[in-house]
Write a structure and sequence with these properties.
Layout: H1 3-10, E1 13-14, H2 15-29, H3 42-45, H4 47-63, E2 70-75, H5 81-90, H6 96-99, E3 100-105, H7 109-119, E4 126-129, E5 140-145, E6 154-159, E7 162-170, E8 176-185, H8 189-193, E9 202-205, H9 207-223, E10 225-234, E11 244-247, E12 250-252, E13 262-264, E14 267-268, H10 269-278, E15 284-288, H11 289-295, H12 298-307, H13 312-326, H14 328-332, E16 335-341
Parallel strand pairs: 2-3, 2-5, 3-4, 5-10, 10-14
Antiparallel strand pairs: 1-7, 6-7, 6-9, 7-8, 10-16, 11-12, 11-13, 15-16
The chain binds S-adenosyl-L-homocysteine.
S-adenosyl-L-homocysteine binds at residues 27, 33, 41, 43, 76-78, 82, 105-108, 111, 131, 145-147, 150-151.
Amino acid sequence: MDIKEHIKRNGSITVSEFMGYALPQYYSQQEPFGAKGDFTTAPQISQVFGEMLGIWVASMWIEMGRPSDIAIVEFGPGTGTLMQDFLRGTANVKGFHGSAEIHMVESSSRLQNVQKQNLNGLHDKISWHDNIATLPHKKSFYIGNEFFDALPIKQYVKTLDGWCERIVDVENNGEMGFGLSPVCSFSDSFDSEHPDAPEGSFLEINQAAISIMKDIAKNITEYGGGGVFIDYGYSHYGYRDTLQAVKEHKFHDVLTDIGNADVTAHVDFVALAGVLADNDINSYSIATQKDFLLSLGIQVRSEMLLKGISDSKKSDEIKSAVMRLIDPKQMGNLFKVLTFVG
Ligand code: SAH
């Protein structure tokens, strides 16, 4: 049923329910990625991105003494480009591919098929999962780019009546609009955790992301491993509304053209790191994408790539793609990287 009809019949829904409705529709129908789609992600900008993640995981694997039976798990792999570059980039790390099985967690069956085509022949043990429930319990490395931003969030706004959940409703003029739930509360932990948040502050809770991080943390505590997750997000609370929609590479009204635009929110890296700390995984860090990629040697890697190329247009493209990933004015600072080992 149309979401507007649903609200008219059954009453308002929360922001989280709204995202839960719009997103599966979007990922199952649209081609979100690349110049002809709605947005471009780092793996599509440069092969070096996936290669760098491969280097990070392979180095951790070597540091751990080259364990012989590991899982590499990618969440929300999109077109599978990141894993292609990851596998190509680590093909020469002795024993690494043979020790690993690859697990892809992807809720859209359309995208699972795209990934299967793109990864055909790159590794003999790749399997797909609709969700986290069927992942193996063994030493695992978890990776994901722009995954957590695609999960539904709940939003709360601080008012004189307490923290009120933000809802989506159909207004008197027949248009959809945002509102606040009439039931607000001063009693939840928000007040103790955010005593100085001024009136009008937003808090955003990504319960699905937290629950996935809990499962990851539990598995790592028991079997060891690590992870690297990259996303646009914040490492300090801004108390702002970060819900956004993007269509054809431009910001778009969240409540217009529902299911045809990508709706996301910035990722709360403080909350994700908090889950690790709660599970006694204290070896984690949050860095900017710029610092993360530079520390792994992205510049050396791009110079190596450039050496093989004589066409100056091609080499300019490579340089500007790498720049786009690390430049603080482009993706370098907005994108954060959470890494952890345990
Ligand atoms: N990592 C890719 C794609 C990012 S888009 C890239 O960087 O290009 C988000 C991806 O997460 C899509 O593949 C989408 O289908 C998938 N996704 C969204 N919600 C999901 C969920 N709940 N479980 C698994 N995958 C999900």
